[in-house]
Amino acid sequence: MNNKIKTVLSLTLAASVIPAAAPAHAAEKNTPEELVHIAEAQVRSLAPYNNSMTLSKNFLQEYHLTQSAIANAKKALPNVKNARQKRLLGDRIEKAEMAVLRTARVIDALKYGEALLKDTSSFIALISKKEKADEELHNWYDKIRTERRAYEKIVGKVSGSDSRKAFGLKYIVPAKLAEEMMAYPLTRYDLNVKALAAIAADKPEVARKLVDTITKMEEKGDIVKAALLKLYPNNKAVQQQISIIEGKIEAELALVKQSIMEALKPKSNFNLEVLHTNDTHAHIDNIARRITAIKEMRAKAENSLLLDAGDVFSGTLYFNEFKGQADLEFMNMIGYDAMTFGNHEFDLGTAPLSSFVKNAKFPFVSANVDFTKDANMKGLVGGTAATAAPKDGNVYPSIIKEMNGEKVGIFGLTTAETETISSPGKDVAFNDYIERAKKSVEQLKAQGVNKIIALTHIGYQDGGGDNDVTLAKEVDGIDIIVGGHSHTVLSTPTVDTTGAEPTVIVQTGQYSDNLGTLNVEFDPSGKVIKNEGKLINLNEKSGDSYAIKADDEAQKILDTKYKPVIDAKQKEVVASTDVALNGARADVRTKETNLGNLITDGMLSKAKTINPNTVIALQNGGGIRESINSGDVTMGEILTVMPFGNALAIMKLSGEEIKAALEHSVEAVPTEAGAFLQVSGMRFSYDSTKPAGQRVVKVEVKEDGKTFTTLDPAKQYFVATNTFTAAGGDNYPMFKKAYDEGRVSEPGFVDWENFRDYLKANPGLKPEVEGRITDVSK
Is the pLDDT reported for residue 161 higher than 50? Predict the structure, then answer.
């Protein structure tokens, strides 16, 4: 008997002391013979109660009166002088005591049974409230089973098989049925979980067998249900709880069966059209054509996604004025499905970024950027796991898009270089991209996703410590990498075959020049078996007109809401110069000019803020398009000088490679060449009368920023240039080799912005031709 039952019983018996006073008082007047007779009469009065199966107040009162009567008889027995009579009376008292003992066992059984019945009812109620099996239900299950077993021992002491059977039917059977009621949903729940796991693991036949087992349990469940309803014929609450339990189990089983039916359907291959952009950098003058191209491609595709790989921020006056909101209006208009963060999204801290995210009508994916401590962004973090129900304007590690019954997972990555090349702030953390990619793939696969896209801003083959080529080789399970950051123009997709299945890598270049399109065919297992991708040139012309017609609605918004502001901004004066800045084509492509010196000085200054060990800056003459007259310098003039918006890159080169690059720079002199390099942090001389490739006679580097020292062919130097030149543009094979070997970091920062900022920070400069490049033959 447990403590609870003991306490209740002791309190009840204590309460019965009051009516016991009458027999005690009577004992003083009656003879021992009479007292024994009274005790026997009291024993006989208990008989109806013993068989009533009801623990009433009267039963307990009569039981206590009988105990008192026997006590009085026993007390009077020593007063009997006749030994034979004394022995006979003693035998009668002993029989009365045995009868009371039997009644005591009935009372114990009834008391314990009532508590057990109460716990059983509570247990049934608890089951009905639970969505699934958990620790609390397991604890209750153990409690009921333990109490029921203890109770069976107590009932075993009750006299008479009929009585024991009656006790069992009233108290033991409900407890056993409650145990079965518990074991039934628990077992089915566990089998359902296993079946779902089998479906997720693409093992539908295993799942089918598990459901067959569950179905066989239904007959047993119906028996349990019928027995409980029979046991509680008038208890509507219990009946309702049983129905709730059954309803939950049936609903859950129906979902599993449906999932299995879907899993067992003969599957065909799945085609997906991925439309993608990256590094648009606020170039929205052609946004209306981009929207037209997207609409046309979507119209042709049954299943399509529109993704952006980051760096919407920074690059044109549109960003300076509207902080990304102009771009966002058009992105919302056309309906992007997801975007990841580029490093430039953090250029102004997280306040403008949070506004950008809040106003977006699409979700963001970022598996390796931790915003949980950032005041501006932490409220926009939607969770730490993959979700199939992402909310617009929220950030998730990964999301799941469902199309025609197929699940496609998308997770995001941002270069860890952002911490040093942008301004995310101390409360934004960048985690290891390989580790987070593996975790994202694992989470998506756990939810039955076998088609996975990594939306990345880490660079195609960038040398900053993370890139798409390495990602494809190191992380299994990624089917497509939609990349950005390195401004790489992949005219056709690159396919990495390192893992068990191929990984397709795409990137569009920069500045909204192209819309990327990738059509991928997956087999039923989620393996890419075919891919076809191309770039749609958004600026292509047919005669005097653009090949792609502008979307009317988008063009109207651009022309009325945004462009007038930018046109006015271009007229603003940002600096002044006392001397004319020579950007004449014939000069910047054949010799040193003061404008070339000014531009490269600004480039070197910016590069040193990122990598203080940068000692040289190089600007291809083909990237300087116009001169600037003395006097005020407007934004429009700066943009005319540097119209391409080339971004900053930092190369790690040997002295030998630098000398080879200088040879290529001057090999065409005196013929104009876009490859001719304007320089900063160094000076060199060459002889234009010598054969190409043998002209450079002396190269010196200002490593400490003050004193020139001879270039060491074996030494490594950090050299700033633009991404066009760093990738091998203008036929620089030594730069392309460095790029391919991952020795080029691409922090970004657009050339005209660097130039503007340098002019603002250094008013009164009078750049001169100072002998950085000398033709000794003249």
Answer: yes
Q: Are residues 445 and 500 in the same domain?
A: yes
Q: Which of 630, 572, 619 is nearest to 722 (CA)?
A: 619
Least confident of 28-37, 391-400, 723-732: 28-37
Give yes or no for a contact between 581 and 627, defined as CB atoms under 8 angstroms apart: yes
Range of the domain at 720: 573-775
* Chain segment 422-451, per-residue pLDDT in tens: 889 999 999 999 999 999 999 999 999 999
pLDDT at 21 over 50: no
682 part of a folded domain? yes
Confidence bin at 143 (pLDDT 50/70/90): confident
Q: Which of 520, 535, 559 is the last residue of a domain?
A: 559
Q: Cα–Cα distances in Å, from 478 out to 407, 465, 466, 533, 535?
A: 14, 20, 16, 17, 22
Domain CATH number, residue 607: 3.90.780.10
CA distance 669 to 774: 12
| CA 388 to centroid of chain Cα atoms | 10
Q: Is a pLDDT exceeding 60 seen at residue 325?
A: yes
Residue 618 in domain:
yes
336 vs 206, higher pLDDT: 336
CA–CA distance, 689 with 140 (Å, rounded to integer): 98
pLDDT at 13: 29
What is residue 507's three-state secondary structure? coil
Q: Characterise 533 by phi-psi region: left (phi > 0), alpha (psi -120 to 50), beta (else).
A: beta
Check residue 379 and give left, alpha or beta (phi > 0: left; psi -120 to 50: alpha): alpha
At residue 29, φ and ψ (nearest 5 deg) are -110, -20
What DSSP element (H or E) covers 147? helix 135-155
How big is the chain, counted in residues?
778
Q: What is the DSSP letter of 559?
A: I
Give the C-alpha separation, 424 to 393, whole Å.
Answer: 19
